[in-house]
Protein: Myotubularin-related protein 12
Amino acid sequence: EIHIKEPVEKEVNPRLLPGELLLCEASTVYKYMQEDGSNRGTYGKLVCTNFKISFLDDDSASDDNEPQFKNKIVGENDITLQCVDQIYGVYDEKKKLLTGQLRKYPEKLIIYCKDLRVFNFCLRYTKEEEVKRIVSGIVHHSQTPKLLKRLFLFSYATAAPNNTDGRNQTVMFETLEDWRDELERTKGNVRYKAVTTNEGYRVSEKLPLYFVVPICISEESILKYEGRGIPIWCWSCHNGAALLKMSAFPKEQDDSTSQMQKAFLDGIYKTISKPPYELLKLDDLSSSLPSLQDIQMAYTRFKQLFLIDNSTDFWATDVKWFSLLESTNWLEIIRRVLKKAIEVAECLEIQHTNVLLIEESATDLCCVISSLVQVMMDSYSRTKSGFQSLIQKEWVIGGHSFLDRCNHLHKSEKEEAPVFLLLLNCVWQLVQQYPPAFEFTETYLTVLSDSLYVPIFSTFFFNSQHQRDTNKSGESLKTQSGPFRFLTVWDWAVQFDPKAQAFLNNPLYAEKPKPDKSQRKTSRFKHQRQLSLPLTQAKPSTKRGFFREETDHLIKNILGKRIGKFINSADEPPNSLREFYDSWHSKPVDYHGLLLPRIDGPEIKVWAQRYLRWIPEAQLHGGGTIATAAKILDLMEEVQSLQVKMDEEHSQAVSGDVHSVPMLRNSARLSSLFPFALLQRQSVKPALPTSTWKDLEDEDDLVKRDDEFVDLSGDML
Structure:
C-alpha cells in the first residue's frame, strides 16, 4: 500500500530554455525515492520537451534548497533526451523494455540514464489519457531515429542570444594560425608544415580544413588517395621526435590496387624515415588494441554494475563485486590503453623515434593514444586550457565521430562505442595518481563526461568539421555568416556560476615542479566495493606484475586469445620498456615533466565519482576526498580574505567590511557523493545473508534509523 499524500494543487511550470517547446505532460505522477520497501516519494508533474524530460514537484518552484554545485542548464530532476539510455515499463511487477509503438501502457516507468542516474515513476494515479501521451511522447522523442536538424542544438542556436563573453583561452584549431602557433610551441615547425590543401574540403570531407604534415609531403600525394596513407602530425617531443597518425587503406582490395598503395606507402615512409638520423616506428592500433566492439561490450557490462535503484540490489551484488568487476573487462581495457601510451612515450622520449599510429579512419583509438601521450609528456596539456585545446585538436577538429559513437540520433547501435569516455577514464587514472600535476579536478572530468549529452553545445554533436561547417550555415559553405551561432562546451559560465566553477579547478595544482613532495594517498571506501581489482599473485612484484613474458590467469581470462597474442608479441623489446617504466618510477615525480601511470594490478581503479555518485550506499558521511577538498577550499578562501585585509591595511584604506562570501561547506556533514548529490538516506548493510534480508518485511524501520556509525568493512568477501 502506498501512503497517499494528497498532491498540492499549486501549479508548477517548467523552466524552458530559448527554443525549448513543451510537447506533453502528465499530472499526479509519483516519483519514488530510491529506497527499498518504503515506497516513499513525492507527487509532481512529468513533462517532456524537445530538450529534456523533467519532473516538477513543489520544491522545483523554490530556490531555498538549491545545491552549491548547481547546473544552470540541466537540473537535478532533468534528463536531456540524449542522456536517456533505456526506458522500462512495469506491467504486473514485470519489467519490459519500451521501444516504438506501445499497445499497452505501464503502471510504472523506469528511466536509465547515460550518466547512470535511475528514475522511478508511478503512473497509477495519473489519468489514462495523460499516461498514454507522456509515455509514448518520452519513448518517441528519446528512442526513435531522428534527423540531425531535429536536434535541440539547432533550435537553441536559433533562439538563444549570443552573449558569450569571448574570454575563452581554448585554442579551437579552426584557423591556419592556430596550427602554426602549435607547431611553434612544440618546435615542430622545422620538419612539419601546416597545409591549406583541404580548403573547400577538396581532398576529403573527413579531414579538417587545415592540418599538419611532414615538410617533404607534396600536395599531389595528399590529393592522390583523399588523404589516406598520409602521416598527419599530432605533436612534437622536446627532442624532435614526433607523434603522427594515418588512416589506413581498406584491406579488401584487388592485387594491382594493393601493390600501387604499397608502393605509395613505401615512398611516403622513405621521406620521413632516414636512418640513422630519423627513425620511424609503425603501430597498427587495430591489431594491437581491443576493437571498438570489444570496448562497447565491456562498457555495457561495466555500467550495469552501477545502474542500481535500490539497496537490496546493491548488497546482493556487493558479495561478488570483484568477480563482477573483473568479468566486465573494462579496467583491463583501460590498462591496455595506458600500457600502449607508455610504449609510445618510451619510443619518443628514450629512442628518439617518430611514432606513426595507424587505424582505419585514424579518428578513434588514434585520438585516445595521441591525447594520452600528450597528457603524459606535455605539462601544457595538463592545464585546463591546454587540455581543452588538446580535445579540440585531436577529437573535435580531428574528426572523431561523436554523433555516431554516442548514437545521439539513434541511427545505428553498431557504430556506438564509448571511445571519448575511455579517454576520460584513462586521464582520470593519471589525475588520481598525480593530483598536483593537473590544473583541473576529477569533478571537471565528470562534468565534461556529462556534457556529452547536453545538446546546446556543438562540441560533441558532429562527426567532422565539414559536417559542422555545412550545417552551421544551413545552406552552403559560401555563406560565411550563417544563422546558427553554436556554443562551445568550454564556456563553463553557461552551465555554472563562478562559485560552482571553483570545483573544476585544483587548488593543489603545482605551479612549479616539486619533486620532493610525496604523493597523496588515495582514499578507500569502507564497504567492500573497492575500486580496483586485487593482484592474483600471492607476492606481486612491480617488475613482473604487468610486464612479464607469460600472461597470468587473470589477463588470459579477461582478454581472450586475440589480445593474449598481443601481450606475448615479440615485436618490441619488453626489457627496454620494463627498464624505462621501472627507472621512471624509482625517481621523484616531476609534476611538470613526463608522467607515467602506474598500471600494475590494483593501481587501475574505478572512477568512483562518476560511477558511484548516485548510489547512497556508496557514500561516506563526512569522508572521502571531498572532505579534504572542501577543507582546502575553505583554507584558501580564508587566506585570500586575510590577504585582502593586509592589502587594505597596507594601503591605509578607510574601508568598511571586507566583502567576502563565506562558503557554506561543512566537511563533517558532507558526503563523498558531493558535489553531485547532497546527503541522502543512510544505508544499512544487512547483517543477515542477502537472501534472508530480501525476505524481511520490516526493512522500513531500518531505513528510517537516525544517523549511526555502521562499519561496512566487514568480511563481505
In short: Residues 38 and 400 are 46 Å apart (CA to CA). Residues 22-144 form a domain with the PH-domain like fold (CATH 2.30.29.30).
